[in-house]
Amino acid sequence: MSRLFGEVHRKVQDEQGTRKLADRIEEIACKTEIDDDAKAFIESLDMFFLSTVDHNGRPTVSYKGGHTGFVQVLDAQTLIFPVYNGNGMQLSVGNMVANADIGMLFIAFDKPHRIRLQGVSAVSRDPQLLAIYQEAEFVVKVTLSELWQNCPRYIHRYTRESQSRYVPVAQCQTPLAEWKRFEFMQDVLSEEDARKAQDSGFIQVEDWMAKIKAGAPDV
């Protein structure tokens, strides 16, 4: 029995003559434990892509970023990652609460490499987990289902210029997202964010968009 392929996959593989190739790749690459190499790679990254499914069965993918090592491998079956302050929509969190099955793509662009992981998520506000991450609103614990390394040949090479100044760090006040400084957003912000916006001063949408178009690093 395949862990990855269903009847539709088999039909397409047979049409393309790739069933044996697919079986060999699954045999070699598909893992049910996070080994030392996978752990080292995952914990060397400062971003990944998260796939969840919403209440209508629609898939969505979001980018998650933090400081290097913000995804922590606890053991061969378990990893955790933080959810920081966002736009309040709680799409990823809400999706995971309703449907715990998720996908994660870990990818490095400087030395092309990637790992795909599927698992079962549990969204937590356990104080012990929250204490691991500065200003995390939630911590997600993921129990591994499968992971496998993908061929890196189509990964374009990029290098990182800098990490985001918005990732929370100890002994440093985290800047408020600039779009939360729009005047028309003030009546829907939390009290804390509204206070920060008042202290920082309001900004105009046109100025913010101009900074984005100019590639400003601090937007």
From TrEMBL:
Q: Which InterPro entries match?
A: Pyridox_Oxase_N, Split_barrel_FMN-bd
Q: Which Gene3D superfamilies match?
A: Electron Transport, Fmn-binding Protein, Chain A
Domain Pyridoxamine 5'-phosphate oxidase N-terminal, chain residue ranges per copy: 35-133
- A Pfam family that this protein carries is PNPOx_N
What PANTHER family does the record point to? Answer: FAD-BINDING, PUTATIVE (AFU_ORTHOLOGUE AFUA_6G07600)-RELATED
Query: Under which name does UniProt file this protein?
Result: Pyridoxamine 5'-phosphate oxidase family protein
What's the source species for this entry?
Methylophilus luteus
Q: What is the lineage of its organism?
A: Bacteria, Pseudomonadati, Pseudomonadota, Betaproteobacteria, Nitrosomonadales
